[in-house]
Structures are given as structure tokens and as C-alpha cells.
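Sample intake sheet
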Amino acid sequence: MDKFKKDILSLVTEDSRISHASMAAMLGVDVSAVDKAVAELEADGVIVKYTAIINEDLAEEEKVEALIEVKVTPQRGHGFDTIAEEISAHPEVKNLYLMSGAYDLAVIVESASLRGVSRFVSECISTYDTVISTATHFILKKYKVEGALMQDEEGGRLSIQP
């Protein structure tokens, strides 16, 4: 990938709402060059989705997120891909990663309740023949997401008194 496309990815990663005109001005090129490069990056699957990071505490979202570690037996000829595809098809799954270490897959799920996460683990994840074990960790508070600091409700940092 050339430097121009990497520069575009850097700008879009920092602010997914940035206009093509702004990118062109920052990179010193014509808008049509940015249009073409972004279209190619999208068509090639390099840019998969544009999204926003939401501070759920301030948005008063009542949902539960959990990190589920999953140990599986890899399948001959497919490794971890088949089970990962099957797990990722569930709507509760926000993210799924192949990991090194004690567990093979890290699954980030979202549900309306603790019971919903529990039900997902017991009725979905644990029912796969290749799943050996799971460990569920509930996310209690987010401090930093995708490089963005999540601040408290007043928008400031905790003060340290001498």
C-alpha cells in the first residue's frame, strides 16, 4: 500500500467523519484523488466500517459487556476459523479475536443484562463440540476505547489533593 493511502487511513482512523475535501487539503491533493483512493480502500475491504465511539455512561445506555475467553480444539484443515465464524455470527458478539496464551479466542459480547450474557455462554458458546472451556469477565468501567479516553460525567479528571 502506498503512503498516500496510508495517510488517508490515518486521517479516517482519527476522525471517521472527516470530509474528503478536508483530507485533500491536508494532503495537498485534489479531492478526486481522495475520492478514488477511499473508494478503492472500501472496495478492497481495507476500510470495513465507519463508526463512532460512544460513552455509554453519558448516553445512559443500560447494557452489559463481557470478555469471554474460549479454549477450543482446532479443526483439521480449518484451525480456528470455522468455530470463529460460527461464534461471530451471533448478534451478541461485538468483537472476536484469535489470541495467544491460555485461551484461544477472546469474544467481546454485549447484552441487556447479566442474565443475557450468562445465557449466551451457557446456551451458545458452551454447546459447540470444539469448545473445551470458557472464562467470562464482565467489563465494569471503560477508561480508554480505541485510543479515546473516557472521562467522568463532569468531563474532567479526578483531582489529586496534596
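Comment: The first helix runs from residue 3 to 14. The beta strands are 64-72, 93-98, 105-111, 131-138, 144-145, 148-149.
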